[in-house]
Amino acid sequence: MTAPSSPCIERVQPAEEHTLLPHLIALLRDATESGGSIGFLPPLSTETAGVYWRKVFAEMAQDTCTLLVAREAGQVAGREAGQVLGAVQLALVMWPNAPHRAEVRKLLVLTSHRRRGIGRALMDAVERAADAAGRTLLVLDTRQGDAAERLYRALDYQEVGVVPGWCRDTHGAPDSTVIFYKHLPPAAPLTKTPPPA
Ligand SMILES: CC(C)(COP(=O)(O)OP(=O)(O)OC[C@H]1O[C@@H](n2cnc3c(N)ncnc32)[C@H](O)[C@@H]1OP(=O)(O)O)[C@@H](O)C(=O)NCCC(=O)NCCS
After folding, report:
1. Which fold has domain 7-135?
2. 118 CB within 6 A, ligand 1
3. Ligand 1 atom 22, closest CA
4. DSSP letter assigned to residue 17
């Protein structure tokens, strides 16, 4: 048996909207239908999901948001729009007093591809994207008790606190959310290689 290939993480360009939209819509609907607490409630229509992603692409065109997607490595090599396995966004805070802050939004992995390290790989990549954009303070939140809470704790995100009744589940019952932050460590300084003796 061959080991599954590790996902390839790509930064999406605004011009890829047309090609990637169906994949992103499918990803958002999959996460919503499987009970993810990501803002929407099932049933999520293709139209509503499309409106959401178009807004994200509009933010990308204004350079206020970075969208990263995970795709199977083999499919990316040919530059074809292979199945998108996961995604995450980095929303840059645009207030003049917070040029160092960004929000990590909508970390999503297809239910069929979970527990294979894709979520962790997307978080690693979003932290690198934040660092490259000069954003050293990341904030995010997730429903208390969800897999994402365990993932964020494993990645050293610090809990700010729990907000009871932050949102509603499919039956209208209140759900609590946990708010996290992380200060990214400063990038390692470049070291000179000593000349051979
Ligand atoms: C959260 C989510 C993105 C994780 O994606 P994933 O690819 O399955 O995560 P990974 O395989 O990279 O898991 C990394 C670590 O997170 C933790 N983790 C992830 N899923 C878990 C689960 N179901 N139960 C327990 N721990 C879990 C584990 O520590 C895991 O490491 P391990 O596999 O070595 O034990 C995915 O479950 C998802 O899309 N959920 C729905 C959407 C959502 O809630 N997003 C976050 C809020 S916006």
Report:
1. Aminopeptidase (3.40.630)
2. yes
3. 147
4. H
pLDDT, tens digit, 9 for 90 and up, residues 43-94: 999 999 999 999 999 999 999 999 999 998 765 444 455 799 999 999 999 9
Buried b (16+ CB within 10 A) or exposed e, 101-133: bbbbbbbbbbeebeebebbebbbebbbebbeee
> How far apart are the C-alpha atoms of 119 and 84, rounded to whole Å?
13
**Closest-lying ligand 1 atom to the alpha carbon of residue 106:** 48
Shortest CA distance to 106 belongs to which of 42, 170, 38?
Answer: 38
Which of 27, 120, 166, 180 maximizes ligand 1 atoms within 8 Å of its Cβ, making it the mutation to test the pocket? Answer: 120
In the chain, where are the structural domains located? Answer: 7-135
Sheet holding 101-109, edge to edge: 7-11, 65-72, 84-92, 101-109, 137-143, 174-183, 158-168
Query: What is the pTM (predicted TM-score) of this model?
Result: 0.92
Residue 62 in tokens = 């204004």
Instruction: Name the residue with tokens 């139209």.
Output: 47
Whole-number Å distance, alpha carbon 20 to ligand 1 midpoint, is 23
